[in-house]
Design brief:
alpha/beta, Aldehyde Dehydrogenase, Chain A, domain 1, 6-stranded mixed β-sheet, binds nicotinamide-adenine-dinucleotide
Amino acid sequence: MMKILNYINGAWIEPKVKEYLDVANPATGEVLARTPLCSPADLETAARAAAEAYPAWRRIPAQDRVQYLFKLKFLMEEHLDEISRTITMECGKTYEESKAEMRRAIENVEVAGGIPMMMKGELAEDIAPGIDELMIRQPLGVCATICPFNFPGMIPFWYLPYAIACGNTYIIKPSEKVPMTMQVIFKLIHELGLPKGVINLVNGGKEAVDAILDHPVIRGITFVGSSAVAKYIYSRAAANGKRVQAQGGAKNPVLILPDADMEMATKIVADSAFGCAGQRCLAVSWAVTVGEARDEFTEMMCDAAQNRVVGYGLDAGVQMGPVISPSSKNRVEQIIGRAASEGATVCVDGRNTVIKGYEKGAFVRPTILANLKSDSEAARTEIFGPVLGLMHVNTVDDALSLVNGGQYGNQASLFTSSGSIARRFRYEADAGNIGINIGVAAPMAFFPFSGWRESFFGDLHGQGTDAVEFFTQKKVVVERWPKEWSRKF
Ligand code: NAD
């Protein structure tokens, strides 16, 4: 069993808690660790350490602060295997998926290495005779991030490198379902020799989150998770006067036009819908075929679903692992059951999956639900499992109204060989990330991780220049230095 500790003020600390949550390997059922569900008192210790570290940290020149990130990048590369194995063990995705997740984390560390350039200000001379005006970006102070379970290694890095390179001090609260990855990463952070209190780790669930939302020294909060919790975080943190951004859930559509390269489209849509067992916020979860695309796409998708190799993510050749827990498996299977009773056709049924040698695993095989009604539960709810719903319409207009009729706006994709329809889709689709012949339109670290409508609450996003803007506040200075005041030399 891995011992889960907090990391506060440069030291590993065992929190004194009454409650723990078991962390089980979703493929084997083996209990790997127990997450301490920390109290506001533990958060208080971390917030105090971060607040004490802040004045000296912000005075270190940005070009010296980023040297710690360069060191971290190489440590993360060196320990990529260990981190990726840990992600697979606690989260269920395949080893290759875990490695890909960490590539994106490392990419964010690299991009934040450019903070000395990115956080520079602006200056205008002579806004009136002899008067200049300048804008400087200063850090906020103590900032915190609250993370979901599905990318335990990547999501903290949408924020952490930018926050500290901009001169803030920082607290991370990982998902209580997957606390192990951050234990491994914080061992590397410990090796950096950062001043004490610059980066802190507090484990726990709702109580720890509420303590973050209410703590007076915490100035900026980023959150990633489900929409209901995102909305709660956004309103409570904002009511407490904090800067906040909250990324929420998703229900991502893909349109398939008859002129699409069907082989490419089915392969990519299968990777999107079933990759990470459908537990990606950018997973395609419903496909709308237009006109003649229907039969060929349905047949090829069913083949792709049936042929996906499901098993333990550390075993060679496995293409899809389990969902996060038996209760998640149960929830996904119940949604499939209710969809069938509401009239959907279960073309490929992933329920009641048992994988030999992993009988306690939370496996759901890829599932295809055809003839999905647009107002049904399965068409509107985020399932967060390997389930793809299919709908059919006759025109692009109808397809676009379906896309824009949902409540979420994380991602919308289109498969076509028509440039003008692609342009129209990019222009009109009501979502923050758009894929054209792409199934997972995940923004690179130097673009904002966008998201609209119920998928995002706030203004500035994570990654790239948005993160720099989020983790800094602008100060404007107007100054006059009359000539007469200067001594004559
Ligand atoms: P979740 O909302 O259950 O939990 C996220 C975090 O919130 C955890 O740290 C948890 O401790 C905390 N939390 C949960 N309930 C809370 C409550 N009532 N009060 C205060 N804090 C609470 O999300 P999850 O199940 O861990 O992650 C999956 C969800 O995250 C999906 O909806 C997925 O779409 C979303 N997600 C979104 C993005 C994005 O970029 N938009 C990225 C990844 C995941």
